[in-house]
Amino acid sequence: MSDNGLVFIGTYSEKILFGTGQVLQGKGKGIHVFRFDATTGALEPVGIKEGVRNPSYIAFDPSRRFLYCVNEFKEFEGEASGAVSAFRIDPATGGLQFLNTKASHGTDPCHLMVDRTGRNVLIANFASGSVCVLPIAEDGSLRDASEVIQHAGSSIDPRRQTGPHAHAVEIDAANRFVFVPELGLDKVMIYVLDPARGKLTPNPNHASISVAPGAGPRQLVMHPNGRFAYLINELNSTMTAYAYDAGKGALRELQTLPTLPPGFTGTSSCAEVQIHPTGRFLYGSNRGHDTLAIYAIDPTSGLLTALGHHSTGGRIPRNFAVNSTGEYVIAANQDSDSIVVFRIDAATGLLQATGHAVEVGTPVCARFF
User: Which residue of 47, 91, 182, 308 is surrounded by the most CB atoms within 10 Å?
Assistant: First the structure.
């Protein structure tokens, strides 16, 4: 689907305690909306949906009529939970009409995705290490949870992996299998989705796949051809390529490459991963090195070739987005309060500065609409 000229930015609007022990004071005002000029790459502010608590990650339903955001906090209506909020989108203005909010049944929800039928929102609760499914009503509002799965276990990092930390949700093209990178367990959990009932069951063929101890898997994306998948690992700053068996929902590791350049000795961790719409290039963000790592994808084997790095023009690139035509990428630099726009070279996949940037307090998620 082509972008219609709008960009939505999720932010931290209040204080949050991270799993690292860092406390960040959010400076965002809610969900920020910009008009995007696809000729120049310029962003023009058009509005803010204020009063939304920590709308850190956002997603659209397949019809692009509704926007859903996690509300990333640790208590909701007296319970240990974050929340998810639903909005109707005015496609002309980017205006958001609030519909409702429901508990995520886990603390610090950090990522969500709408299934491909538009019937359910699937949520990863980071702090509690759980996955939740919220069915969607006909008017776009959220119903009570139809599924909550609590993960259990730990891994080797004594600070970051003492318990489960579900970090993202990815659904395959057939809307059949759901992948949940589990930073705390060093696994990717794999579920079978029943969209009509809003239920998840462990994949009987392949319930999980393990990564290197201490890797800290964070986000996974499927290749457009449906044959490959790519996982970015937060803690050891690596990118793993997989072959994907769509019939069994099974992942088979092909290779793992670093996201950082040789000789880098500073502190850095990974965040977002995105595939170019052509399927030819892969990008991953380094927080600390403050770059996007760039890879070429072999269309036959799925193997990656490292192409280099490009500065995101700010500090702690928490998230980034590639537009539907593959011409631009926008980087959300959380700690420098900036959204920076780059042009993508269609032949090489490398980035070029456009000179366009806007200020947004503690941006966490950027999405072309």
Answer: 182
Cα–Cα distance between 246 and 255 in angstroms, integer?
Answer: 19
pTM of the model: 0.97
188 pLDDT higher than 70: yes
* Mean of pLDDT over the chain: 97
60 strand-pairing partners? 67
The model's confidence at residue 20, banded by pLDDT at 50, 70 and 90, is confident
For residue 4, the model assigns a pLDDT of 62
Residue with tokens 């949870």: 145
pLDDT higher than threshold 60 for residue 1: no
Token pair of 222 as six digits: 């499927």
